Amino acid sequence: MLIKIPAASRSHESDVTPESLYLSRRAFMAVSGALAAGLALPVTAAEISRYEGVDPAKAPQWFTEKLPSAQWQAITAGDEATTPYRDATHYNNFYEFGTDKGDPASNAGALQTEPWQVVVDGEVGKPGTYSLEDLMKPHGLEERIYRLRCVEGWSMVIPWLGFPLAELLKQVEPSAQARYVRFETRVAPEQMPGVRSGFTLVNWPYVEGLRLDEAAHPLAFLAVGMYGRVLPNQNGAPLRLVLPWKYGFKSIKSIVRISLTRERPKTTWEGIAPDEYGFYANVNPQVDHPRWSQAKERRLPGSLFRPNVIPTRLFNGYDEVASLYGGMDLKANY
Ligand code: MTE
What we know:
Layout: H1 25-36, H2 45-50, H3 61-66, E1 71-75, H4 85-90, H5 103-107, E2 117-122, E3 128-131, H6 132-136, E4 142-149, E5 154-164, H7 165-172, E6 180-185, H8 193-196, E7 207-211, H9 212-215, E8 221-226, E9 229-230, E10 240-242, E11 255-261, H10 268-272, E12 296-299, E13 309-311
Parallel strand pairs: 1-4, 2-11, 5-12
Antiparallel strand pairs: 2-3, 4-5, 5-8, 6-7, 6-11, 8-9, 8-10, 12-13
The structure holds ligand MTE.
């Protein structure tokens, strides 16, 4: 976001993993076993073919146990092609691991994601420090294929695995005073070269926030996996937010703290450059960034000769969130 916009995607055609390399062999085996047993499954033959040839992901037991009963394609992106796994995992923003797009893939392997604890505090009936496994206990996994639009002007289509944020809110019981949700990323300088580097622009930890009604919207999602696998570290393992109608910087990674608050949280990018990055950060082609237009986006992967530029849509095409902002001036509340 600082802001380096490459002329075209750095991905080469040879880097692109075919979509058939999509879901884990473990899931494939679960599916083929169930098919052999004549069980009805919420997957199509086309999906099954995408499971082939993928090595099992290193995943915690709770993830592996939930995967066979995941609800596949609970939400899709219509006929928009899913971004190849290779691009989604090698063109990242995760400044804790460096500012180049390839840094998270190179450096985030050092992040220890097990055991992982999440503090839930503030205006909630059930505050506490939850192990991720305990936090996940009540939740099944569903797959949601969402568009992701970065404020820098590129976009992808990613099949996430996780559960609605609204379910977690219900689980921890917000009090009548709760009006916002604040999220915080882990800070581990010894594992995070970007934090160690003295790169002072970001006042760690990375913080994001939502109004409570935005957080409770059915599209707001907590992801623990993608492409049928556990989340790679560079994509925010083991738990990240996904808000498809907002610019990508709202989708905070590697969450260790979720607080329900009365006051609007001070968020990282709003704190760094309030004229450029607002609290709402709703995707809007009519509200330009002060330094570039937001009318179009580069759908990755692209190339110099095929930059794959497409029009950007209000709320990234997720019109169902419009009622959250009824009567609000979207230019003033960018
Ligand atoms: N979360 C943390 N903790 N640190 C970050 O630097 N970058 C954000 C967001 N979440 C970021 C973060 C930005 S700018 C974007 S576009 C998305 O993560 C990118 O997600 P991806 O790398 O999975 O595509």
